[in-house]
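Troubleshooting log. The previous structure file for this entry was overwritten by mistake, so regenerating from the original sequence record. Sequence copied from the archived sheet and checked twice against the printout by T.R.
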Amino acid sequence: MRRVVVTAAGSINALGRGVAAFAAALREGRSGIGEISLFDPTGYRTRYAAQVAELEPPAGLSPAVLRRASRSDLLALVAAEEALRSSGWQGERDGIGLVLGGSTGGMLASEEYCRRTTLGIAGAKPSMALGTPVSTSGDFVAHVYGCHGPRLAISTACSSGGNALGIAADWIRQGKAQAVLSGGTDSLCRMTFSGFNSLQALDPAPCRPFDRDRAGLSLGEGAAMFLLEDLDHARARGARIQAELLGYGVSADAHHITQPRPDGGSAALALARALAESGVSRDDIDYVNAHGTATPANDATETRALKHCLGARAYRIPVSSTKSITGHCLAAAGAIEALACIIALREQFVPPTVGLVHPDPECDLDYVPGEARPTALRTVASSSYGFGGNNTTIVLRRFED
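Regenerated output below.
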């Protein structure tokens, strides 16, 4: 079977632009959650989110792209540009496929268009709503960077980014592409804030995963993109290999549109399937990047799922939620957290769970509170659970020849 490796990555989130900025924040345990300024949050449960402070588009974009690209599109373009630039890829990109996860697309601009239209404010152009379809971000990335391979938009709520990576790996193993640009992108918008506010799922303060006083999540935005390749193809072109994507597992709760299945059985099934596809046992897992939203239901359910699948091993391995650093970036979360895992494998440390001060007795695993921890890591798992019961876990390994 073909081996799938990660040969490049690109990133933008509230911690800064670029993989290096993200790695530094993870090591320092520095959170990007702060007061939002994209729109007025008056009336919501919180004023906090992990917002990208400065979103400068990549250099050289045409006026037409700049005029039509939504915030989600620009986040994807920034991450894709870094991934492709750092990949060392030479020549045409005709054979590069593209799988990109998304959820709200260009909703922020569409909201502004509707506001101006409704209130009769000048400057309401229909082009502001062109980015509404989830597929638009992938369209822009393929167009700007000349990726003519197979293309797919994935929207499975908060597991979109993880599923995008899994499907990209499937394409490579099936011989549909030798290289695939894959990841996730999502921007903050009023609709997201309103939806989670109505569910009373937003913490008035920055989120506190696995803490007994946790009161909900903190939303975030960003993008992470990776170049995945067939190992032989990567070797032939002299690529620098960052990690190996061993496999992924998917399951459905079939339970509730917003609440996880309480016993954690379906989440455990996604992890078990990921281990089986990857050819590793639970004893091989050295770290789990948890979904860790800081909602009362998720964190308790995820703890049960880890115990159910990993048994006694669950008590002996570090588990952390990097959403305490990046916020919950929705469709981009799985990709951003996969990047956190790759950084952890490369630099041999476990990112911390920020804000965890008073552990919940029901969440009694090693959740790495407060500070990053130097740890020997070889094989790690990252889980993403989306609304509707869309569960995904990917398994990554430090590359070994």
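DSSP finds twelve helices and 15 strands in the chain. Archived copy saved in two places this time.
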